[in-house]
Amino acid sequence: MSADAYLTLAGVLFSIGLAGVMLRRNSIVAFMSIELMLNAANLVFVTAARYWGVIDGQIAAFIVMVVAAAEVVIGLAIIVTIYRTRNSASDDAPNLLRW
Prior knowledge:
Blueprint: H1 3-23, H2 27-52, H3 56-86
Helix pairs in contact: 1-2, 2-3
């Protein structure tokens, strides 16, 4: 397959993720949409690395995966705390997170 097919797929995945973040009000769905956008960026990095024959893109994709894993830990902790406090995972009123 050509690099164009992979880049098109990455663009579609990123667009779906962006639409999920912008249109949905559920924190968990927005969180999954951010993960989808990070995976689209990984696909671009790996495609570029394969196209140019260097390993830099794969290293960048590995760093993005490490950041995504840290995001999962911190993001889910915040979402669980919000759910325990308000019994809802909706992010309509972020000012309720104040002490």
